[in-house]
Specification:
This protein is of the alpha/beta class. It contains eight helices and twelve strands. The strands form two sheets. It has a six-stranded mixed beta sheet with strand order 1-12-2-3-4-5, with helices on one face. 45% of the residues are buried.
């Protein structure tokens, strides 16, 4: 099959148009995606409990303070009950990026903001970033949990280090079961923050109700979108693994070239609703 002269002329223009659309999609501030999560036997007091999730921002040379500041302001306008930051916040050292990640300290929610490490934190000295995120006022969850008292009902929020963290530091090995150690036996809802969706198998066996993840960027662009399913059980959106709901964010920033096609970035507002 041969291209006509007219078609041959159109090809570079089409490629340029696609690249431009991908650039605009990547550089715009993420839109808000509303997701209802049905929970069996949800107490009335937790009906409508909201979690704002941001993930995979990748603060680095092209994503700087103003970009993150706009994301934080948009999250705060949602007035969530809590905020979850599910890893891959940065691509660089604390010394390089401290001023650009500072807006994270302005996150505001009734029950605070929580952070778990992604694989990219481990490329950039995870321990330094854990200390810096804590300095900014977020609670970092490293295979541990906190109990939130919401209108006389207890909600458990747990977090694990990145699925691959043990390759960098054995003491950071991701363990959803360890994240529940010492928790009361009767908890209305158990939520796990885990950067990679492939933590879901262990989370389901540990008895979590909901896992919030990122990592995949929803595929971000071709041909990366073809490889994500080879590594991860879920690419984007709300999925079910036995009794566990898994929500996989498409990411709030981007990684690599500023390009997104058919995988728009998102700030996710998840709402707990009764399955009944």
């Amino acid at each position: 099959m041969f291209l006509t002269d007219d078609t041959a002329v159109l090809v570079p223009f089409l490629a340029l148009a696609v690249s431009l659309v991908g650039f605009i999609n990547a550089r715009r501030v993420a839109g808000v995606r509303h997701v209802n999560v049905p929970i069996a036997k949800l107490p009335l007091a937790l009906q409508g409990f909201t979690i704002a999730q941001i993930s995979d921002i990748h603060v680095e040379p092209t994503i700087k303070r103003n970009y993150l500041d706009a994301i934080v302001n948009k999250v705060n306008r949602l007035k969530p009950d809590m905020v979850a930051v599910t890893g891959d916040l940065v691509d660089g050292s604390v010394a390089q990026l401290r001023s650009h990640t500072a807006p994270l300290g302005n996150l505001s929610a009734r029950h605070g903001a929580y952070f778990v490490t992604g694989n990219h934190e481990y490329y950039s000295n995870a321990n330094e970033w854990i200390a810096e995120v804590r300095r900014l006022g977020l609670t970092v969850l490293m295979n541990e949990h906190v109990l939130l008292r919401h209108d006389h009902v207890t909600l458990l929020i747990a977090g694990v280090s990145d699925y691959s963290a043990h390759h960098f530091d054995e003491s950071h090995r991701s363990d959803p079961h360890a994240a529940l150690k010492g928790a009361p036996s009767q908890i209305a809802v158990k939520v796990l923050l885990a950067h990679q969706p492939r933590s879901a198998e262990a989370a389901a066996s540990a008895g979590f109700d909901l896992q919030l993840s990122g990592h995949t960027h929803g595929g971000q662009f071709f041909p990366w979108n073809l490889f994500v399913p080879l590594q991860q059980p879920f690419t984007a959106g709300l999925n079910r693994l036995r009794e566990l709901w898994v929500y996989t964010s498409r990411g709030t920033g981007y990684w690599g070239p500023p390009k997104r096609l058919w995988a728009p970035s998102e700030i996710t507002l998840l709402k707990l609703v009764s399955a009944e």
